[in-house]
Design a protein that fits this description.
The chain is mainly alpha-helical and 511 residues long. It has 19 helices and 6 strands. Strands 1-2 form a two-stranded antiparallel sheet. The longest helix has 44 residues.
Length: 511
């Protein structure tokens, strides 16, 4: 604590910390009976821990005031830098993820302007950046496409906004019944398998724009078959989009190695806009987008209310799965800072943010791991960083110059942003490779790892109805847990020990 350092008082981090007239110090009794407090040129005797005798009130108030002022100034600067950094990143990501969901680019920007303000105001974490995610956009597009609506059409756009409202309502209900910790009850191998399958599908859908391939794959083909159709025809790729995608990926990946806060995505977008403005063959661009403040779209939602039964199942899957990522990063940051984190309050903030996003014409939103981590690294200390991010995005999209800049973005650059964002998630997680030692006892073992991989296969097989893959994985997990209860108690430890030995051997071989 700052006051203890200023007073030259040794801090015992293992002891409980209490407040004495605004002065924070360890309640554990120091080894020496008397220490010296030093403020300026005056010396005072240190009282017994937990008391206030002999502590000059004026000196304590002076130290407290100086501490609060310096801390407030540091927070303001850190929040300002983080808010600006995240605003520049949220704009191209919103455009890219809206395109992934089959929506107009402005839908993602609207979502990233409204959701951060609402989520930061009502949520539990002071770091969490609420906005559009790649997996949420993928699930949203797949769910609405499954209703037979054409991507980009007016009913498709309205149904996507309605889905965002439904997801938000389900999260509000979870918060009302104190179900914020429900995510922790879902078997982790199932969640990892479902997420990895979704990431593979997300990456595969970006290949046509990255390569600029001429022609259209068969409409009836599976999503993986369409990706394979692109990969086996390199002679039909366009040189301009391929070069632009390669340079953009090199900037984004290489920039992170130079410095964690290097704005690689922003630099890649500026480069793409400059190349398109110069008339270089970079492939198709986003095109004209409307400028102006986001407005309520309640009138557009009413004609598609009859689609609620068909969207409800997908909304439940999105509400749980996408909230898990935001909950993971926000709880981890709260644990790092030794702060309390309320899952019910977090899911409430995320739910109301989703409702607001849908009502303003946006799509499904959740807490984003990458943007939240970047905000913390950029110096965010309070909720003001996320609120500033949303306000800056709103100002950008309201300005005609902002709409013009979005219109010049090449689709190859946007596809590269999505592809690079999910690239680290393409490989199996350690959990799916058998490292289950840190899981609860009922989720350990070879059998649950097999269930995770079966979830991967099922999700890929039923695409684009991805929520069915999650349902199959959960059903298999429940079935396996039931079988475990039926086995003799002495057989499961033997199976688990065999699998742990295999994992250790695999790790050593890989190293």
């Amino acid at each position: 604590p700052y006051n203890c350092l200023r007073a030259r008082l040794p801090i015992d981090t293992s002891a409980k910390v209490s407040n004495v007239r605004g002065l924070r110090f360890a309640t554990k009794q120091p080894d020496v009976a008397q220490l010296r407090w030093r403020f300026g040129t005056r010396n005072f005797a240190v009282p017994r821990a937990g008391t206030t005798e002999d502590v000059p009130q004026g000196s304590v108030d002076e130290a407290k005031t100086e501490s609060v002022d310096e801390e407030s100034n540091g927070n303001n600067f850190g929040d300002l830098m983080a808010g600006i950094t995240l605003a520049f990143l949220s704009i191209p990501q919103g455009v890219a993820y809206a395109t992934l969901a089959g929506l107009p680019p402005i839908s993602g920007v609207y979502a990233n302007s409204v959701a951060p303000v609402v989520g930061a105001t009502l949520g539990s974490s002071r770091y969490l950046q609420t906005g559009v995610m790649s997996m949420g956009a993928m699930l949203s597009g797949a769910a609405v496409t499954g209703l037979g609506l054409a991507p980009g059409s007016a009913p498709f756009i309205a149904a996507s906004s309605l889905l965002a409202v439904l997801v938000g309502c389900i999260r509000v209900v979870l918060a009302a019944v104190k179900g914020g910790n429900l995510v922790s009850k879902v078997p982790q191998t199932v969640m990892h398998g479902f997420t990895m399958a979704c990431v593979w599908l997300v990456f595969s859908t970006q290949l046509p724009a990255i390569t600029g391939i001429a022609g259209v794959p068969p409409a009836a083909a599976h999503m993986i078959q369409k990706a394979w159709w692109v990969l086996v025809q390199p002679q039909n790729w366009s040189l301009g989009p391929v070069l632009l995608s390669s340079v953009s990926a090199a900037i984004i990946i290489g920039g992170k190695r130079v410095h964690a806060l290097f704005p690689g995505a922003v630099v890649a977008c500026v480069l793409g806009c400059a190349a398109a403005a110069a008339g270089l063959p970079v492939g198709p661009v986003v095109g004209a987008v409307p400028s102006g403040l986001p407005t309520l779209q309640l009138g557009a939602l009413l004609p598609v209310m009859h689609l609620i039964p068909g969207l409800l199942f997908a909304a439940g899957a999105i509400a749980v799965c996408c909230f898990a990522e935001g909950a993971a990063i926000s709880s981890r940051l709260a644990e790092r800072d030794q702060e309390e984190w309320d899952a019910n309050k977090e899911v409430l903030g995320s739910g109301i943010a989703g409702i607001a996003s849908g009502m303003f014409g946006g799509l499904t939103v959740s807490g984003a791991i990458s943007r939240t981590s970047l905000a913390a690294a950029a110096g965010a200390r309070t909720r003001r960083a996320a609120i500033l991010t949303g306000l800056l995005v709103t100002v950008f999209v309201a300005a005609p110059a902002g709409a013009t800049a979005i219109a010049m973005l090449p689709k190859a650059t946007l596809a590269t942003l999505v592809g690079v964002a999910v690239l680290p998630l393409l490989q199996p997680t350690p959990l799916l490779m058998g490292n289950v030692t840190d899981l609860p006892e009922d989720q350990c073992g070879l059998d649950m790892v097999v269930v995770g991989w079966l979830t991967v296969v099922a999700t890929l097989a039923v695409a684009p109805k991805l929520e069915l893959g999650l349902t199959i994985g959960l059903a298999l997990a429940c079935l396996q847990l039931t079988i475990r209860k039926m086995l003799p108690a002495d057989e499961m430890p033997m199976l688990n020990d065999m699998w742990h030995r295999y994992f250790k051997l695999y790790t050593r071989t890989a190293q």
